[in-house]
Amino acid sequence: MKSIKKILFITPPAFSFRNNLDINPLPPMGPGYIAALLEREGYDVSIIDSLAMGWGNHESINEDIIRVGLSFKEITEIIDRYKPDVLGISNLFSRQSLNAYKIAEIAKGLNPKLIIVFGGAHSTVCYEDVLSTNFVDYIILGEGDISFFKLIKHLEGKTSESTLDGIAYKKNGKNIVVPKKEWINDLDSLPFPARHLMNMDIYFGLEASHGRRRCKRFSPIITSRGCPAKCTFCSANKVWGRTFRKRSVENVVSEMRHLKKEFGIQELLFEDDNTTLDVTRAKDLFGKMIDEKFNFAWDTPNGVAAFALDKETLKLMKDSGCYKVNFAIESGNQHHLSNNIKKPLNLKKVPPLVDYARNIGMEVGVFLVMGMPGETEEMIWDSFKFVASMGIYNPHVSVATPYPGTELFDLCTEKGYLKEGFSYSDLYIRSFSISTPELPSSKLKEILGVCQHWIFKEDIKRNPIKYSRLFLSKIAKEPLKTGKKVVKFVKSLFD
Q1: Is residue 277 domain-shared with residue 389, that is, in the same domain?
Q2: What is the pTM of this model?
Q3: Which positions of the chain have pLDDT values less than 70?
Q4: Which of 319, 301, 328, 299 is closest to 214 using CA atoms?
């Protein structure tokens, strides 16, 4: 039997490109939910977000890559000062795994008896890789709230191994995997995330989360879990399951009141995978937000499923404070979308929704995923022409990334599509990790460059006044430098 009183959660620092920070410091909702549950049960819990707390610290890794966040020396001092009985480490992204492993190694060096628990998407789908480090004692598989609590009770000697659910660990040199038996259906039973343990003021000053925010005081919010879709590039169902589970409207509104009162929140980031999947519930929620006069600004940084949208829902979104809607369409070629990406969306539904959203004053964004197996050059052009036909000239383009746990990863592994020397550190949205018979990675880079140049030119042709003003303002600041660039670009318009 082990006495457990103090539990520390750490999110690691993160690798990023030196010249283009591609990471977003956000209050960590996963640890926040688990910490809140443990606090309710009487445990002493702390959360350290290494990325946000050390946002100004950039450690050079090589000429292209930096590590952003608290130094490992600072993290060592925190662990040593806190002296937790259990250390939970978030290992969300495959690319960032090395930083999580380093923290585990440091912690074991300070106290070999310290119990270290990993969680997050990468830990869930690559548990064998994580356990092989020999610094990790347990892994929470998928949804962690109840699983973590059950593990703590077992470690205290109050329950048997048979009570563990959704967990992986080593025993007698062998990996033991206990698949998740049940998901949390009553999400209202969970306390609100322990934002009071995150020093929210840090995030308010960064203005870096999913781009610049409308309001300084913002917070993510999660109102549902699970995704029934089977998109081949996505691993969300491995973490949250395929069954769509939702908090009651009353429970969500109560959290919104809490955010207003306790933190002065002005803007919300709906981090749901499917905010509008249950259309009736979504309309009820947005209507209640209007009735409550919250006056939140809010958007959908993860995108919304167009197949679960209608004009009435969009109007309620706008009236309740939503200023931007991101349509996750992935491709403008229906055959590719249905057969290779396997997204349940009829593209004919999208243009009327985009037009309506724009007409009622909403900003509109579109997500595309390029370079999937089966995609041809013609299909990529279809995608760019499709978004341009809707008056969208700045689509968010991701390159197909074979995250472990996805059908895409399994297919690429089976077919030999992964680039030579592939490693988890290569997994970011423009890593060009896949070479297919239709589109080798070098060809894909070339085509995307041409397509993006084309759509930029189309934007200039349709909005000459906007770009004239932009060019003139830049020339005024740097006449010679900018002038040369403008001349060069104008010439390219006629190439």
Answers
A1: yes
A2: 0.91
A3: 1, 207-212, 429, 471, 474-495
A4: 299
The per-residue pLDDT for 389 is 96
Check residue 471 and give its pLDDT: 67
Say which amino acid occupies 405.
G
Q: How far apart are CA 50 and CA 59, in angstroms?
A: 13
CB 407 within 8 Å of CB 378: no
C-alpha–C-alpha distance, residues 345 and 347, integer Å: 6
Q: Identify whether the C-beta of residue 123 lies closer than 8 Å to the C-beta of residue 91.
A: yes
Q: How far apart are CA 391 and CA 4, in angstroms?
A: 58
- Whether the CB-CB separation of 367 and 328 falls below 8 Å is answered with yes
pLDDT digits (tens, 9 = 90+) for 265-302: 999 999 998 899 999 999 999 999 999 999 999 998 88
Looking at the structure, do residues 300 and 161 belong to the same domain, yes or no?
A: no
Q: From CA 412, how far away is CA 400, in angstroms rounded?
A: 11
Neighbour tally for 178: CB within 10 Å:
16
The position carrying tokens 């009141």 is: 257
Instruction: Output the CA angle 84-118-301, nearest 5 degrees.
Output: 115
Which token pair is 157?
């000697």
The one-letter amino acid code at 305 reads A
Residue ending a domain, choose from 178, 199, 230: 178
Here the tokens at position 206 are 């960064």
CATH number at 338 reads 3.20.20.70
Identify the CA nearest to 311 among candidates 344, 348, 353: 353
